[in-house]
């Protein structure tokens, strides 16, 4: 067994035949760390050293059975103080403790506890009671352990409740994200469908315009032969009147020429010419022939009478 320190004198540590003496006024956090490095220590007295805190390595002294931390200035114990599972005797008299760490509930071997002269939380102070004798200190250890176990259970429940709330919140957030992603996918799908429909309409419009362009030359080609064949095209109006007038003009011109020739041959000095003689003879023969016709003679007589 290793014993370190005693109340009212020097701190003495005996380990493997080596002795370490430190005055109480020289004890600070550095030698405390050194003490925490003694894995076989079972009894440790650190009282009256003005300690304000214990290093985290201190809880590595899992072989401690008896620990005296009385008459210091400890405001709190390390969070993992419950690692000292073999601790049976704990003196925390006259410190500045308000609460105990939740891990305190793991000190299942604790049988003696003194928490007097600490500004404890009212609930914890009522549970701890006085520690004026051996019996009361044992009752304090038992009641405080039960209380800390209840606190641990309550904190675990609260932790589970918060975890459940966080899980529910996470589920809601995930559901919201899924709904948002589904909405975005639906929106992208709808936009894609609209874009596809727009392109299809543009393609159909271009195709229809192309068909119209292809139909126009065909119509013109189909109409041209019909007009040439005359199956449906209108025939140009007959030009009978034009031809008749041309014939009449020609006849009138010939008559004028003949009349002019007759006048020239009968009135002018040309009547002695051989050509005019022939013309005059022909004219006289024609006139006698016409006079021999009854109707013409009648017309000529009527004209002469008028």
From TrEMBL:
Bias-annotated ranges (Basic and acidic residues): 175-221
Subunit description: Can form homodimers. Interacts with SGO1. Interacts with FGF1.
Transmembrane portions of the chain: 244-264
Location within or outside the cell: Endoplasmic reticulum membrane; Microsome membrane; Nucleus envelope
Keyword Metal-binding attributed: no
Name listed for the protein in its UniProt record: Leucine-rich repeat-containing protein 59
Record's compositionally biased regions (Basic residues): 229-241
GO annotations of cellular component type: endoplasmic reticulum membrane; nuclear envelope
Keyword flag Flavoprotein: no
Bilayer disposition of the protein: Single-pass type II membrane protein
Family annotation (InterPro entries): Leu-rich_rpt, Leu-rich_rpt_typical-subtyp, LRR_dom_sf, LRR_domain-containing
Function description: Required for nuclear import of FGF1, but not that of FGF2. Might regulate nuclear import of exogenous FGF1 by facilitating interaction with the nuclear import machinery and by transporting cytosolic FGF1 to, and possibly through, the nuclear pores.
Organism: Balaenoptera physalus (Fin whale)
Keywords from the named record: Coiled coil, Endoplasmic reticulum, Leucine-rich repeat, Membrane, Microsome, Nucleus, Repeat, Signal-anchor, Transmembrane, Transmembrane helix
Region: Disordered, residue numbers: 175-241
